[in-house]
């Protein structure tokens, strides 16, 4: 989730943002000048808006209390389409694999650690405090987590510790953190090169499949079988970005897509459930997963190089803070606009999204921009 436009040595992940990193050695690199990958920023915002559509109109649960009735009633036609928005997370993970490999190539472990922590945590800390503070207000009808659990949430370790989550989307950050740890230990620490990256991709993908077959919770926790193919696919596409003739990179990407769509269908297909909020079809799920892979591939190959508008830099900068705050604070805005001010559903949906984008800009301008470089500098010191 970038404070600047993404360039060849600089990019950003799914729900988390990256900072610039040296490109490092590039064997077999394409003979083309490095360009801005602003299209990747735009794709990240598209994925974030997909997730927001799912949270506002593609599921039941707490958002039903905000609307006063089920979103199925509010959006009788669009709620089925919105239900596919949860797959924006898988799109984020493909992007994350691409950019983490780009960022970690040629970087020391200390620098990699500093870039990850400094980019993830400032906006996250403020989002946790902000949502907790809003939910304790008497006028807000949602229950806040306990003070102890709120403090644990500041560590990003609330899930393994069994604490209640302040931010509903933070589970994806826990997935990202485990990916960062695996990549750091297996690639960044010994030094990134093409052979090592290929070994990491093949080894992780195979180990993840075996872990699922073994049905061992600890292996599932570490290897994340249902998400590994998306990260690995993104890494494969970064190898293709370096050399579009890289058959191994293409092979990794293809296998990752085939395995990833299987997990996505197994987890999200619900056509047989008569009580499902909205029925997702196998074809629809595969189509959205394919969209994520194809879109990142088009960017990797330079097919979207004309999408170089400066506003995409702003879009990329807003994605991560928007992703953090949009769900829970969106409930509050929806309830206020729709139930108290009687704003129509479509207008409420649009105004809520706009309000969360404005809040994201404020977080980026007054939290991320001043704090991220300072924290990165402090963590980069080796003495």
Can you describe this structure?
- This protein starts with 37 loop residues before the first helix and ends with a helix.
- The protein is 68% helix and 0% strand.
- The chain is globular, with a radius of gyration of 20 Å.
- Helix 6 crosses helix 16 (345-380).
- With 383 residues, the protein is mostly helical.
Précis, in short:
The chain has 16 helices and no strands.
Shape by Cα distribution: globular
Number of strands: 0
Mean pLDDT over the full residue set: 90
Termini, distance in Å?
A: 30 Å
Poorly predicted runs are 1-34
Helix content: 55-70%
**Major sheet:** none
Radius of gyration: 20 Å
Strand-residue proportion: under 5%
Give me the strand/helix succession: HHHHHHHHHHHHHHHH
How many H/I helices? 16
Q: Helix/strand-derived class?
A: mainly alpha
């Amino acid at each position: 989730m970038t404070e600047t436009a993404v360039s060849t040595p600089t990019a950003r992940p799914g729900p988390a943002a990256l900072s610039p990193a040296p490109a490092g050695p590039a064997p077999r690199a394409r003979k083309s000048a490095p360009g801005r990958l602003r299209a990747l920023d735009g794709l990240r915002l598209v994925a974030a808006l997909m997730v927001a559509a799912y949270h506002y109109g593609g599921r039941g649960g707490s958002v039903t209390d905000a609307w006063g009735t089920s979103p199925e009633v509010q959006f009788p036609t669009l709620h089925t389409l919105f239900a596919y928005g949860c797959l924006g997370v898988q799109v984020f993970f493909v992007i994350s694999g691409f950019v983490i490999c780009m960022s970690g190539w040629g970087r020391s472990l200390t620098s990699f650690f500093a870039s990850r922590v400094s980019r993830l945590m400032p906006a996250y800390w403020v989002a946790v405090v902000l949502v907790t503070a809003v939910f304790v207000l008497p006028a807000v009808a949602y229950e806040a987590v306990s003070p102890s659990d709120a403090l644990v949430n500041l560590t990003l370790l609330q899930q393994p510790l069994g604490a209640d989550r302040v931010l509903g989307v933070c589970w994806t950050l826990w997935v990202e953190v485990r990916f960062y740890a695996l990549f750091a230990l297996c690639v960044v620490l010994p030094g990134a090169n093409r052979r090592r990256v290929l070994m990491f991709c093949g080894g992780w993908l195979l180990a993840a499949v075996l872990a699922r077959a073994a049905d061992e919770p600890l292996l599932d926790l570490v290897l994340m079988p249902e998400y590994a193919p998306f990260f690995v696919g993104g890494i494969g596409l970064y190898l293709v970005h370096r050399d579009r003739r890289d058959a191994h990179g293409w092979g990794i990407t293809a296998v990752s897509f085939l395995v990833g769509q299987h997990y996505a269908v197994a987890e999200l297909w619900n056509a047989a459930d008569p009580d499902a909020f909205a029925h997702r079809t196998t074809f629809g799920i595969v189509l959205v997963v394919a969209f994520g892979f194809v879109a990142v591939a088009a960017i990797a190959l330079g097919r979207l190089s004309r999408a170089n508008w400066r506003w995409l830099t702003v879009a990329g900068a807003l994605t991560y803070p928007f992703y953090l705050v949009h769900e829970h604070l969106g409930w509050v805005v929806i309830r206020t606009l729709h139930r108290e001010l009687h704003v129509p559903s479509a207008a409420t949906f649009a105004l809520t999204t706009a309000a969360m984008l404005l809040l994201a800009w404020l977080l980026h301008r007054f939290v991320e921009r001043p704090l991220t470089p300072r924290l990165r500098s402090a963590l980069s010191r080796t003495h």
